[in-house]
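User: Predict the structure for this protein chain, please.
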Amino acid sequence: MIKKILKGTSITLTPAIDAAVDKVVLALEKFVESDDTSAIAEIEVARTTNHHRSGEIFRAEINFHSRLGSFRAEAEKEDLYVAINAAKDELSESLRSKKTKRIDFIRRSGLKVKNMLRGLPWRKGRK
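Assistant: Here is the predicted structure, written as structure tokens:
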């Protein structure tokens, strides 16, 4: 279960924004082990002002902490929900990469142990 912390800067948090953030947290659940109670998703949504751009610019930032480590994703878009989804996609890719590297490391380690056991003297002559 991921603990969600939502913060709004220069923007009023609405139930629609909360629902969009809940979808992000639900998408991140698949990267968290079921017994990991330390998982926290800190999500900040904001309306920013950039003087070189016209119109409203929205920013979504996700800081995610779990046993896998700490991850951060940020996106600035002209639509708040697009920014939230872009940050979610960036964070999901980072988590997927970390999880794949971890699994590959475990598999390589197991293969090395298996090959070492094959070379032990008590295994000579066995097939």
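Helices lie at 15-28, 80-118.
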